[in-house]
Amino acid sequence: MHPPIDQESPTDALRRAARILRGATRVAVLTGAGISAESGLATFRGAGGLWEGHRVEDVATPRAFRRDPGLVWRFYNLRRAALAQVSPNPGHHALADLERRWGSDAFALVTQNVDGLHQQAGSQNVLEIHGTIRHVRCTGCEAITDRGTEALADLPACEACGQLLRPNVVWFEEALPEAVWKRAEDEVARCDCFLVVGTSAVVYPAAGLIDLARMEGAAVIEVNVVPSQASSRVDVLLLGPSGTVLPELVNALA
Ligand code: OAD
Q1: Which residue of 109, 144, 156, 206 has the lowest C-beta tally within 10 Å?
Q2: Of 169, 184, 218, which closes a domain?
Q3: Once rounded to an integer, what is the mean pLDDT over residues 36-57?
Q4: 54 is catalytic
């Protein structure tokens, strides 16, 4: 059991986290919107968050898309356009460094993010459990195409069959992509150390991975600017922006 957080200095917490991580044979990571905040992308919850400016029910459910696909596409096209303006930050790069250190067979990065910044930073074993907004999926023929950050129409049509396209992301009330989710569960169940970065840990099943890791005996290290729903059940909480804390953690391993 770890000492109460308020009795441990940030430096001691970092040292303890580095010790745990150094001793791990397999590492898994769960990231959320917070890791991309320092790249300039809005998170979902809290002041200025995406869900403050938009109701989830209007832009991120299958029903919303049936009712008003143009509105949903305008929301996602704005987010796609934002991607063209941003790049990975030191937090993304630090996770890519960790993967190089452990090797992709022993390191998996599970992300709830749909922005593709982890891959841009060089991460390879990335499991995008909520999909990616760089890809579109045809509502007719189901073909999935990588459209990058290219500007799309408000009602974009499939080049193959002419039917309406949708962003290839997971909306509320939808199931996660089965094969990707299964791999995520396997990686988390097998890891010795689970890093949880920049997520409020309120959206399931993603947040359930934290319980899975604990149940299977992994140590859990969390990085967040404030305590999250997960903080009471982690081994070390590193409070601070991931763009600073993750590079510090990598340095502390040396
Ligand atoms: P949230 O917006 O819920 O949470 C972002 C978390 O990042 C918060 O806990 C912040 O405190 C933290 N944070 C902000 N800036 C940070 C920084 N610089 N460094 C570290 N942490 C920082 O985003 P998610 O947890 O990703 O799902 O949300 C989970 C899911 O809910 C999303 O994938 C999306 C959303 O609705 C779907 O769209 C299906």
Answers
A1: 144
A2: 169
A3: 86
A4: no
pLDDT of 115 over the 70 cut? yes
Residues 17 and 63 both lie in one domain: no
Does ligand 1 have an atom closer than 6 angstroms to the CB of 131? no
Helices (H), the chain: 10-22, 34-37, 50-53, 56-59, 62-67, 69-84, 90-102, 117-120, 178-190, 208-215, 242-253
Evaluate the omega torsion of the peptide bond into residue 205 and state whether it is cis, within 30 degrees of 0.
Answer: yes
- At residue 4, does pLDDT exceed 70? no
Please choose, from the candidates 201, 17, 196, the residue with its C-alpha nearest in 3D space to the C-alpha of residue 91.
196
Structural domain for 69, as ranges? 47-85+136-169
Answer yes or no: is the C-beta of 36 below 6 A from any ligand 1 atom. Answer: no
**CB contact burial 7-42 (16+ within 10 A = b; e otherwise):** ebeeeebbebbbebbeebebbbbbbbbbbbbbbebb
The pTM score is: 0.95
Q: Mean pLDDT throughout 81-96?
A: 97
Residue nearest to atom 13 of ligand 1 (CA): 34
Q: What is the mean pLDDT of residues 183-202?
A: 98
**What average pLDDT does this structure show over 53-72?**
91
